[in-house]
User: What shape does this take?
Amino acid sequence: MIGRLNHIAVVVPDLVAAAGIYRNTLGAKVSAPLDLPEHGVTTVFVELANTKIELLHPLGDNSPVAKFLASNQAGGVHHCCFEVEDIRAARDKLRASGARVLGDGEPRLGAHNKPVLFLHPKDFCGTLIELEQA
Ligand code: CO
Assistant: This one.
């Protein structure tokens, strides 16, 4: 059901420092920071040949990644995003197999303006999973 690895998201305490590590130390192509107020994050995209790394930093008061950063002060891997062809069909299949879909289960537009859903980490080896309709 899942297709390509679209991105791995890493929450970081300092976006400028993290972008510098990926750009200078690791020699990757790194975007400018982009505020996404409706998602409560500022993002920097690291473009790799086969996938992306999304560096995330909390933006605003109700950021979904603020708590994660508070308990992982050096930063850490936050979620993996896999592409699916039909996000509602994927959701229904996952629910039928007992997996928990976060929120109300309705796909919403993610950071790339494509429909996304999140799956409960306890059902997926301790990893928060994002599905994105490619
Ligand atoms: Co993501």
Helices lie at 15-25, 66-71, 87-96.
